[in-house]
Write a structure and sequence with these properties.
The protein is of the alpha+beta class. About 45% of the residues lie in helices and about 15% in strands. The protein folds into two domains: about 30-65; about 75-245, no CATH class. The chain has a five-stranded antiparallel beta sheet. A two-stranded parallel sheet has the order 1-7. About 25% of the residues are buried. Keywords: Membrane, Transmembrane, Transmembrane helix.
Length: about 260
């Protein structure tokens, strides 16, 4: 039987197409294998690089260990309900070392002082924090701590900064009650007027310098922290002049003055 014209050519074309498709599929397979191989190689290189970085950082940590932050759970000042005599003895003991390093220390006064008297009552030492509290008999007023840079002028000006802190607190909390508002308002007014409301200082000096300060007039106690204590990593609570026997809050039952 005679073949239909063109049928052989079509058969040959089909075979050629099949062979071309096989070559394309083979090439695609090779390309896919190549891509997978490249990805594997890149992953291996990335893993090796990461391992190298980790090893380098570990070595760097060994050669340059992080600096210790120092005292983190320590505090200056008496504990709640601590007998005053016990705290005074503890403060004296804290000054008994023989090293010549600088120490942070809390200075508590026999009576509150005016801000202008801070330089005299700091013994010329670096002041890092000033503690203010407006004294009103039988009225609990806020204790305000003001961090200050070096310099006598900024320590003296800290009373005004304390007044702003009290005002900010009053604005944040709002009028909790009439008594609270009156206490905060009179504290702001007296602090801005430069009242004798400074009840403590945090200073920095050597133990001999701190011992000399502890012997000065108007100084009730000086308590030092270990030399490795870092500013901002310890709590501070001054010994207030009204603490005579035990460190407990006083009564809060007297009328609040207008100013």
């Amino acid at each position: 039987m005679r073949e239909r014209p063109g049928s052989g050519a079509e058969g040959g074309g089909d075979a050629a197409a099949d062979r071309s498709q096989e070559r394309s599929e083979g090439a695609a397979t090779d390309d896919a294998n190549g891509l997978r191989g490249a990805r594997v190689l890149r992953a291996a290189l990335a893993g090796a690089l990461a391992a190298g970085v980790i090893a380098f950082m570990a070595l760097l940590g060994v050669l340059n260990p992080p600096r210790e932050l120092g005292v983190g759970t320590d505090r200056l000042g008496p504990d709640r309900a601590e007998p005053v005599a016990d705290y005074l003895a503890r403060a004296r003991d804290s000054l008994s070392g023989t090293d010549t390093e600088q120490h942070w220390a809390l200075v508590s006064f026999t009576e509150p002082i005016a801000p202008q008297a801070i330089p005299v009552h700091s013994g010329g030492l670096r002041v890092g924090q000033v503690l203010h509290r407006v004294p009103i008999p039988r009225v609990q007023t806020p204790l305000v701590a003001v961090q200050v840079p070096a310099g006598a002028a900024v320590a003296v000006a800290s009373a005004d900064a304390a007044a702003w802190q009290v005002q900010d607190q009053l604005e944040r909390t709002g009028a909790i009650g009439e008594r609270y508002t009156r206490i905060m308002t009179v504290s702001i007014s007296r602090l801005r007027a430069g009242c004798a409301c400074t009840v403590g200082l945090v200073v920095r000096g050597t133990l001999p310098e701190l011992r000399n300060l502890a012997a000065a007039n108007g100084i009730r106690a000086v308590e030092a922290l270990p030399a490795d204590a870092v500013a901002g990593h310890f709590a501070v609570n001054p010994l207030l002049p009204e603490h005579t026997e035990t460190v407990v809050p006083g009564p809060d039952d007297a009328p609040v003055p207008d100013n």
